[in-house]
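Pasting as-is:
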Amino acid sequence: MSNIRIKNSKKTLLSDNYYTLNKFNFDYQMSDGSWVQQMREVYERGHGAGILLYNTTKKTVVLIKQFRLPTFLHDNKDGFLVEIPAGLLDLDNPEQCIIRETEEEVGIRLKSVKKVYEGYSSPGVLTEKMHFFVGEYTDDMKVSEGGGLESETEDIEVLEIPFTEAVRMLNEGEIVDTRTIVLLQYAIIHKLIE
């Protein structure tokens, strides 16, 4: 770490079972010039990409529904979330990643996508930066049923729904995934579907 307001940084590996969790102890210089000791746990899982797929003719969007254990452990009764197709970059650039993930998860082979944002998912604990895309699809781009990769034990339900229904779900709190909220709001603001 290179920052004039941080010194004496010590990193301790806590877990590397699936992704990496490190604990950092460091001295941090406050805005008033004083120094304080701080400790943070940082989860490193790589960067990701997500996409809102939309069809201007049918006025629909494609979302997915899948089980998310952390939400089930917290307050989501069945553990399922409605969300955008998304995935980790692995060794791909963000555009290659989201084109690959779109085909794997929803069975649509895109030719092009438009990047609209990038941002940190949860900067207090994650190193992950998400790359947000939108992509227009047509029925002739459907090459499979999707559903995710069996090798990754994915169990994904593909949802093609009217955009107005997605907006209703957003407004009534039925969509609670922040990545999906961001891209639906982008679609509303930029009038992707009218």
